Amino acid sequence: MDSIQPSVQHSGLIQWVEEAARMCQPADIHWCDGSKAEYDRLMAGMVESGAATELSQQPNSYLFRSDASDVARVEDRTYISHPDRDDAGPTNNWMDPEGLKKRMRELYEGCMAGRTMYVIPFSMGPIDSPIARIGIEITDSPYVVCNMHIMTRVGTVVMDRLGTDGEFIPCLHSVGAPLAPGQEDVTWPCAPMEEKYISHFPRENLIWSHGSGYGGNALLGKKCLALRIASNMARREGWMAEHMLILRLISPEGRRYHIAAAFPSACGKTNLAMLQPTISGWSCECIGDDIAWMQIGPNGRLRAINPESGFFGVAPGTSYDSNPMAMDMLHGNCIYTNCALTDDGDVWWEGKTDQPPAHAVDWKGGDWTPSNGTPAAHPNARFTAPASQCPVISPDWEDPEGVPIDIFVFGGRRSHVAPLVVQALNWDHGVFLGATAASETTAANIGSVGNLRYDPFAMLPFCGYNMGDYFSHWLNMGDRLGGKAPLIFRVNWFRLGLDGQWLWPGFGENSRVLKWMCERFDDQSGAVESPVGYLPRVQDLDLDGLELPTGDMEELLRIDIPAWTQEVEDVRRHLIRFGDRLPARLAAQLAAHEERLKAAGK
Ligand code: O2Y
Ligand code: MN
Q1: What does CATH list as the number for 241-306+397-601?
Q2: Nearest 5 degrees, angle CA 334-CA 335-CA 338?
Q3: What does the pLDDT look like over 382-430, one tens digit per residue?
Q4: CA separation (Å) from 203 to 14, 94, 521?
Q5: What dotted CATH number matches 11-31+74-237?
Q6: Distances (CA, A) of 100 to 19, 78, 208, 418
Q7: Rounded to whole angstroms, how far apart are CA atoms 549 and 303?
Q8: Could you give the angle at the alpha carbon of 86 between the alpha carbons of 102 and 459, nearest 5°?
């Protein structure tokens, strides 16, 4: 087998691909050029094999159904393999690098038999951005190749940028389902759970993934590279790799504010990224919906890029009510995974329309009618869509220098206690708000639904090193940014009233809260100091045209001192898990928080 194209001149890359080929034993090797012809050829092959269904209602769009056991990121099977366990910290699964590699080499041995090995050169970030990084993913999944075409910049342009000795992050992926001679393939090959490993070796900037073909387990540029490995690189090199959307809010006077916001999975991050403000004269542009890479620029301000070029969004719940911009984006050139197929050849998911179709094929490939009583689409069904198709994508979304960040927002899903919005008293307090952010669990993060889980900075599944050291990194970044540091806020769109209904309407109305943040940034709006931070008074928020039941706004902004006091012990338990890696400055923040609550309770 001729594994190397003559045009490839990078000896480190050649060596790594040859090694992988020797181990995985593919039938064939294809170097991806990133062209539309390549995408079309791979899709045609998958349609022919039965792995994909071409949609008749959307041009160049395809539906895939995964294996029923391979439907989401698998946190239990995700490893952060630093040589020293303490460097992975208490929130990550750990195995020692040698032991993990030994186990995975056994699995990788011959794992691509009967399949093509694809070599995908990709750039996270605009190719010419100083913040961008290059990865090379080796995979035996053509589905992964096509998704990577949308989610990253792929192919010849990247190879040109890499040159003969450029730095790249090696990402090895296999679905872990070798084919014996003559063996017929299945439509979604993958390995059993105990053979799934999503492994990160931060010391070597190396990713090895085996056994899953789904989302973050397999599209290795996203969570594996852009967050878990990049968070390590960022710490070493003095920048930030965060689980944050990036948006630009524009005032009626044309003043532009840039907001980076961290929310745990399934808290409406994509909806917020494509916000349609309800306040008169304000508009919003989307720069990214999931990940922000940020560096301190020459003028001392933090500048952010979106390292991705597509959206891998949760389909269920996406509708013209919740996210009209996403709906308008999904008109073609998309990949759908685990959505239902309608009889007229379109996709459907719960919440897409008020009226479900009378009949569909569900995500498992079975006949479905509303009377089935099961969801037609899997709750974690996804669309993969080019960012360029988003009607509110910013004209600057690919600016290689990034955009200057004015405001950080941390969010979570809390039925009680947490107010609609609070502003940090200062940077250290903001880091405390980020470090103690918590959310009630939903389907996307697997495990039981409705439990409270502390999810610091929405990075719990994505921080590639000890979270205590990560808190220190945030404190250090604040020291370096000084007076040019973004303001920090924490929000909760999900507080319930006594009737069990959400108090805040959310969606486009969230612009009212963001507007207050922008006014705070410009020292143009009031607030009161509370034990948990600066709170807007009702009159500080622009509520023009919003009819809320009497008392709801007051309830949304109410600080329930006994409830906060009761949570202090949980917060302490959460923080002391980091032992001596917990920065003293955060321990001091906890003490000050407790003191303020005590004083307020007297
Ligand atoms: O289940 C998956 O593999 C997708 S997870 C995901 C996808 C896009 C954006 N964010 C997430 C997440 O879990 O945070
Ligand atoms: Mn995410």
Answers
A1: 3.90.228.20
A2: 135
A3: 999 999 999 999 999 999 999 999 999 999 999 999 999 999 999 999 9
A4: 21, 14, 39
A5: 3.40.449.10
A6: 18, 11, 10, 41
A7: 40
A8: 95
Ligand 1 neighbours, Cβ below 6 Å, are: 72-73, 214-216, 265, 290, 312, 380, 444
Closest CA to 227 of 306, 121, 158, 153: 306
- Which of 173, 222, 224, 337 has most ligand 1 atoms within 8 Å of its beta carbon, as the pocket-test mutant? 222
pLDDT digit string, tens, across residues 189-200 = 999 999 999 999
Residue nearest to atom 7 of ligand 1 (CA): 312
Taking the model in full, what pTM does it have? Answer: 0.97
Tell me the residue type at 82. H
List the beta strands (DSSP E) in 175-216: 197-201, 206-210
Amino acid in the structure at residue 488: I
C-alpha to C-alpha distance for 465 and 471, rounded to whole angstroms? 11
Q: Which amino acid is at 26?
A: P
Domain-by-domain residue ranges, the chain? 11-31+74-237, 241-306+397-601, 311-389
DSSP state for residue 229 in the 8-state scheme: I
> For the domain bounded by 311-389, which CATH number is listed?
2.170.8.10
Instruction: List C-alpha distances in Å: 104 to 40, 101, 289.
Output: 32, 5, 33
